[in-house]
Amino acid sequence: MTHKLLALLLSICLSLSSSCFGATAELDCVFIPKVIELFLRNHYQHRQLSNEIKTRSIEQMIKHMDPSKTLFLEEDLPKIKELLKKQFALASAGDCSPLFEIKTKWETRASENEAIVKEILSNQYQLNNKTELVLDSKKRDFSKVLEEKKALLRKMVDFQIANLLISKIKLPEAITQLKHRYELTTKRIKEQKKTQIISSFIDSLSSSLDPHSNFMGPEELENFQIQMRLSLEGIGAVLRYQDGFTVIENLVKGGSADKSKLLKSKDKIIAVAQENAAPISTIDMDLSDVVKMIRGKKGTKVILTVLRQGKETTTFQATLVRDKIALVDQRAKITYDKQTINGKTYQIGVIDLPSFYGTGGSGGPSCSSDIKALLNEAIKAKVDAIILNLSRNGGGLLEEAVKITGLFIQKGATVATKNTASQVDILKDQDPSVVYRGPLAVLTSRVSASASEIVAGALKNYKRAVIVGGDHTFGKGSVQSLSDLPAGLGGMKVTTAMFFTPGGQSTQLLGVSSDIVLPSLLNDDQIGEKVLDFALPSQSITPFISPEANSSAPELHWNPITEGQLSELTKLSRERVSKEPKFVELRKKIEKLKQDNGLVKIADIQKESQEKEKEKSQSKQKVEKLKESLDDETEEKAENEELWDEKGPFVKEASRIVADLITLQKPGVSVSQ
């Protein structure tokens, strides 16, 4: 697909202008309309530069310049928006003066913030531990007047100083470091090159089409390609940028971050330090720059300062050793669990699949062949049911998802893709056999994405499995294509298609809902496609469920899940979960998060640190003695991703649910039993 798209790009380019792109070129204003045209010609949904897209682009550009809403005043916005509207009209003439006028205002406000912060951090500065700050900029407006911005910056300074103090940095050094950070911010903005400003404008347009389309300048493209080549090296965390913060989306099974048991989804990385070096703030820093600091030579250490908002708000340091993820840690594995119902013990096989790996048929390992072998092993072990754990699986190869679904049904249509021309292509498993036909549950969470959603959606549509876990999966149902632009101008990643489950519903935005929902810290709107800016809406097509998926032949037939069975399974699960101590505790933490509503209290951060050290701070002057709020022995480990592993409460409850399913599917057993 990449080569075809590139050929199309070249063809379009030639049709736009005889001079279009030269053999090599520097990104200039005159190229803006040409690159925008390429995005619009290839995008799945948006084909015209409508007023809505222009408005979105303007919003994205302002967000790029001031993600935390601490630079601009409300009075600045009308002028900035007016200039950006002009830029669309003037670009074809090679005029980018509106962008550079905006840059001047950007520089002025950055210098202003630097001066305000230095004034706050004067010799009389003392940390106010009563400070409360709403970190999520979506829940804050731009400051109306300068005094309001000064008050906000004071809160930001207290928050940043508190985090430095907890990192064992003494107050005088913390003040020096924070002043330097704001100096660097001003310097970074002033040194923005012409090509970087133009690149940001184009990327603002591309990201206004949907969250996964974006423009990459030459440097960004090179960094992206490096990341792809080194995708299995580093700390093993999938990161995203959200409102000025670098947020951990999920952890890669077997990676350094996963093995440390220190980090989990939704953690915010607010500073990064190399070994024996001072931490550098990552607030409002481009994600690519944060990745550069985290990435490094295998065996070296990186120290992350992390903000976690949970039962308590904590800030802590996590020291991780950069490493290559071992394939053995990424491959599917099986464990066994026993459940006893009415005096009879059942053996449950739990298959954990971290990703949909494979080599595209080149003879190497693939998750479909590994799971087939594990299912045969389980059958020999006389298991009574299987759980397929996709709760930490962020996706992978489409063809592997199709093959894995085919291990549980017979030659059924698994997934359809719909492209920019509205052509629908239906993919089916070609293997007529059914490897396992017994009771089946699929464990999912809001981290389960892409290929995971294809498998879960197909097995749900065919009534082949009970879907258990989070309220719904991530909701990424779109397909992207990446191509280099001609003349070394960078690259474009554009959404070109959408996935659909056999029931005809796209996994986009909505994800796959669970039949039985379990309480989870991941069940909130900070995780999922719908929290991303300008996410595409979900769509539907004509259902394409294959009648032949469930053969009448005894060796191929499996028992479909009925609505009556789901109702009874849900009732039994709710009764257990209401009494299970770990789920009761989870509910308390969920309620605490709702009450805080994104509010960070410095007093809470200090209190948590003090409790972990089992000592009280005697005065504000002793605040530098605050230690890490988290170490290898703390109870926080119980809140980590291991909640979803084979010993955690989610797998345990899924095991009980599938054991109940065994009894309900036995001949002569009524639903009410």
Explain what you see:
The chain is 38% helix and 17% strand. Residues 1-19, 228-232, 614-641 and 668-673 have low confidence and may be disordered. A hairpin with a 3-residue loop joins β8 (301-309) and β9 (313-321). α2 (32-42) runs parallel beside α8, α3 (51-65) crosses α4 and α13 packs parallel to α14. The chain has three domains: 2-213, no CATH class; 220-324, Pdz3 Domain; 327-582 and 647-664, 2-enoyl-CoA Hydratase, Chain A, domain 1, CATH 3.90.226. Strands 4, 5, 6, 7, 8 and 9 form a six-stranded antiparallel sheet that branches. Strands 11-12-13-16-17-20 form a six-stranded mixed sheet, sandwiched between helices. Strands 2, 14, 15, 18 and 19 form a five-stranded antiparallel sheet that branches. It is α+β, with helices and mostly antiparallel strands and 673 residues long. The chain has 19 helices and 21 strands.
Helix vs. strand class: alpha+beta
| Overall tally of structural domains | 3
End-to-end distance: 54 Å
Q: Average pLDDT across residues?
A: 85
